[in-house]
User: What shape does this take?
Amino acid sequence: MNMASEKAKTELYPVPLTIEGSAVLHQMFRVRWAAWQSVSPEDRKALVNEAATVLGEMEKDGQSALFSLLGHKGDLMFVHFRETFDEVNGAELRLANLKLNQFLEPTASYVSMVELGLYDSSMKAYRMLAEQGVTPHSEQWNQVLEETMERSRQAMKPRLNPKIPDTRYVTFYPMDRRRGEEKNWYVLPMEERQRQMDEHGTVGRRYAGRVQQIISGSIGFDDWEWGVDLFANDAAVFKKLIYEMRFDKVSAEYSNFGTFYLGIRVPAGKLGELMSGMLPEK
Amino acid sequence: MNMASEKAKTELYPVPLTIEGSAVLHQMFRVRWAAWQSVSPEDRKALVNEAATVLGEMEKDGQSALFSLLGHKGDLMFVHFRETFDEVNGAELRLANLKLNQFLEPTASYVSMVELGLYDSSMKAYRMLAEQGVTPHSEQWNQVLEETMERSRQAMKPRLNPKIPDTRYVTFYPMDRRRGEEKNWYVLPMEERQRQMDEHGTVGRRYAGRVQQIISGSIGFDDWEWGVDLFANDAAVFKKLIYEMRFDKVSAEYSNFGTFYLGIRVPAGKLGELMSGMLPEK
Amino acid sequence: MNMASEKAKTELYPVPLTIEGSAVLHQMFRVRWAAWQSVSPEDRKALVNEAATVLGEMEKDGQSALFSLLGHKGDLMFVHFRETFDEVNGAELRLANLKLNQFLEPTASYVSMVELGLYDSSMKAYRMLAEQGVTPHSEQWNQVLEETMERSRQAMKPRLNPKIPDTRYVTFYPMDRRRGEEKNWYVLPMEERQRQMDEHGTVGRRYAGRVQQIISGSIGFDDWEWGVDLFANDAAVFKKLIYEMRFDKVSAEYSNFGTFYLGIRVPAGKLGELMSGMLPEK
Amino acid sequence: MNMASEKAKTELYPVPLTIEGSAVLHQMFRVRWAAWQSVSPEDRKALVNEAATVLGEMEKDGQSALFSLLGHKGDLMFVHFRETFDEVNGAELRLANLKLNQFLEPTASYVSMVELGLYDSSMKAYRMLAEQGVTPHSEQWNQVLEETMERSRQAMKPRLNPKIPDTRYVTFYPMDRRRGEEKNWYVLPMEERQRQMDEHGTVGRRYAGRVQQIISGSIGFDDWEWGVDLFANDAAVFKKLIYEMRFDKVSAEYSNFGTFYLGIRVPAGKLGELMSGMLPEK
Amino acid sequence: MNMASEKAKTELYPVPLTIEGSAVLHQMFRVRWAAWQSVSPEDRKALVNEAATVLGEMEKDGQSALFSLLGHKGDLMFVHFRETFDEVNGAELRLANLKLNQFLEPTASYVSMVELGLYDSSMKAYRMLAEQGVTPHSEQWNQVLEETMERSRQAMKPRLNPKIPDTRYVTFYPMDRRRGEEKNWYVLPMEERQRQMDEHGTVGRRYAGRVQQIISGSIGFDDWEWGVDLFANDAAVFKKLIYEMRFDKVSAEYSNFGTFYLGIRVPAGKLGELMSGMLPEK
Assistant: This one.
């Protein structure tokens, strides 16, 4: 073992491995209710039918979902999970060309990619490579890491390309890790970041069965680093979970949060009910 | 008593218990006065009647209220307190489909849930559990805390599902506890946070009878952590109270405040008067 | 003298007394010049006459004033000083229902209440009460402070309900005292704040006769803590005064400033001239 | 020499003298190209002619200038230099009432007053007054400073009421001196500020002949403290100059910068060419 | 060697040389889909043909490119690389006067100039000049630096005036180096900045062949200091690269990032397909 590997042992390579799955788009729209009111019942029906048919196809296999949003940030939120950004953009263009779109005004969106962070496996791999004195970014190093990621991709395939959970409520929000002058996530040692993420995960796991979480990464795609979707059948649990997590070191000291969107699921088949001013029952 | 409980005694579990009540929505609208001017007196009357009837129903049991806002942030504010977010969304959709809505433009909103923070009971329960050496998140631990919350829910039921107070004035604003690099509420020990909240409450209690306060939590629902509604028959008292509180440690050092909305109550039956350009007398 | 009063002597009660006067509203509007151009001269005249008549009534006793604003933040600013927020809201609704309002677009506003801060009298009263060992918030304590405020209200009545000064220029801006992690106004001792306010006032007094200043408080009413109106017949003096003040400790270290609005007074009777595209001469 | 003057010698009066010249307005507009497309060639010609005539008059003596802006922040920028804010507001109202204004949408503006900072003369005067033991703000003190300013006004008259330079490119941006918790310009000693300004000026002077700079002060008039206009016949030089300056202590540590607007000069006589979609050649 | 050069040796001149190439404009537009829907198929065809012809000409030699954007920040992004800002503005005006522009709404833009930073050559030149005791900004000093830049301009000509790479995906974002109270890029010694830039470049070079990067400088032209365009045929690699770089000292501690735009390339010839609601295949 040489000097370089000694150093490597004490200071691990800092970049955690991640694996990527579905391309994701969240779209928020305000309904132009005033204009919608002037549409005849027959025309409304035709417009809704066209939209419900397209959305119904998209819903298959949990690829897309519609939510009725609370508050003025939007009335509708469409969420799309697809194999590629091309398909996501295709879905977006298809909705944009629906006749119903004449009554929708885009207010927000979020572009991301389902991401699983591999803090544990990364740390193990980096430690092993360091102990073996393998030079970072050498062919051997790259190969070991690629194998690590590939094993995870196989093991976690359903989580990389998830169906949109079929719960009553969703909350979506983007977030960053802080790069403050004193509290800077990106200069913490790998071990400390792994420890904090692990603590954080422990809280999350206590909510298993009550909340499903899907994390998507948006570095390079949108204005925050990650998007978080929480799905549950009891909306109050979102508050409980996020409040409890806020006391975790990683949230308390190293996280910034963006805008929150709270939505209620509306299946394609009930779009007409929603557009006539009634929230469909579960 | 074992080592773990020793530690627990010196460093209490940090997350204060909260209990949740009504789902809440604040909606701010600007009136399209220019368009409204071109409506004939008969049509105005019909539009106002429809809206006043719906709003009148919603007002029953103090579930919804209308306020005339000061300034350009909005002309009208609707506040809704309901059992569930489904009902809140239902109220929102119902208003959106009123004909009067053609003359309303949404400018802001706030989504939250009535919340009572149980700092005192939490601290007592956590201390007792620690002294008894009960492992956090064990079945017994969960049960004790659930009982603590349930007792509070019973004792404070009217405060969890309050009627909207029938005062002349309201001020609404959202707020956060700070997570600054040096001043970070979420890393303070439980005891210190409880002490500051207690000091804060003491100031508030001196205004009992003059100001009614309803706190709602919005973590996971909207962009700030809490919403505050103050109700009074003398608007100047809002300034007095909030200014006095600003010198409390918890406000001075650990609070950020959002946008303030000052409104004057207008009962459904006087909507027509308001829409004809006159503020109804008390 | 007991221990408590000893402590009180060394650390004075921190909240300075304030007395409140007129309710205040600033309203900024952009003129829809394009739409205005298509109005016939006769209709223009009728619209202007109606508006000038209403504004003329409001101008009586210096209660309301119109200013032509510089720049894109607005073309017109209406300032209203009234006894109550009800009357302020009434004035707002009355303007909103003018036919001329079809050509006005609200861009900003500010809601506040004329405020006089009583740092000097507060400190004297708190010192005396402390020396006499009077318990804070006791009946006696409250009575002494209420008397202090009442005396000031009587002595400063004209300043609590001022007429809008009849100068050529106005500048309006909102401001906050800072609550930074290190520089936090609200945790400074009363004596230090009084000292800084006194230094600040000394600068202001050197501009007596050239600038009239009206401070209004907006805690609980709008998004900043105070609004400042400066009135002068020479606009350059605004810059001189505020620049000089910026070197005061209270401005340099403890103040944040919002948006500035510079306006030129236009009497109601000259509204027609302004709306025809000419700034009325003084 | 007494004690007071001793102190004064060691700590100079902190407010640098400034002298003021022309009132300034920058106006940014987006062209409503879609609406413009539907105007007939004859009507276009008439609209352009009216506007070009008015602008042509304003251009005389370098009082106003039109620039074609790059990017979406605006298509046109008008810059006005006038004797008074009344004349500036008059110019603004005149443009607002042009028929061409139906196709312009205001996007931004800046209100300021040409300012020359007299750091060197201020320091000399303050030192002399301190050595002579003259009490600050005494009649004698005021007189000496007024004479200092008057001498500068005479000497620098052309720079106080400059013509808008006739270069091909302009860049405009507003800026502040920082009042951070640690880096606070306004608490630095006069000598240190003078030293930094001098260093800054040295960089600027190396660009003499290639860049003309006009500084205007906006404290009390608009949202930043100063506006900067740079004029050059080679746009790349803006980047070179500002980048080099950014390493000056005063820029690196004590400056915040606002929005930048890059424009290309278009003389009134070539407005028609621009409005037909072609950038006029130099 | 004299004292001055000794100092110069220990503290190098701080401003890195840069060389400039093409003027650059990024334009983001939202499509008015609702209005577009009401256009007849024939008119659509004519509008698309006109636009595609103009865009087709602009595409020659990789001067302009069109991208379909994901999310609500815009539907289309045009990127233009030209010799001068005059040509860039000309391209902008030409697009603004297309009939298709009636259906486009500008949402964002970015103005910059291709820039190559010469940290390595700057440091060598500054060292040499210091060792030779050449006075900064003397004629000799200027000449040596001009020669340094000219050599680089010759050697890197294709990188100064690049063709827009012909990849499927682009991500564009602006960025700043931080000037925080503690972490301030502009006060770091030249050597340290060079070291960090070198580390950063090393990461980038590992992505050679997978990602093409074009940096443009915008100091003096737009609101951030630099714009970054990354081009790739696999969008996920943007996230990988930027995430890895975020752990570099220069990104972790000294960088702020603006809004991210993710786009998919659409050749002029396929504009019709896109405007009919389908993303053209590669």
The first strand of chain B starts at residue 18 and ends at 31. Residues 135 and 141 of chain B are 7 Å apart (CA to CA). The beta strands of chain B are 18-31, 64-69, 76-82, 104-117, 169-177, 212-217, 226-232, 255-257, 261-265. DSSP finds eleven helices and nine strands in chain B.
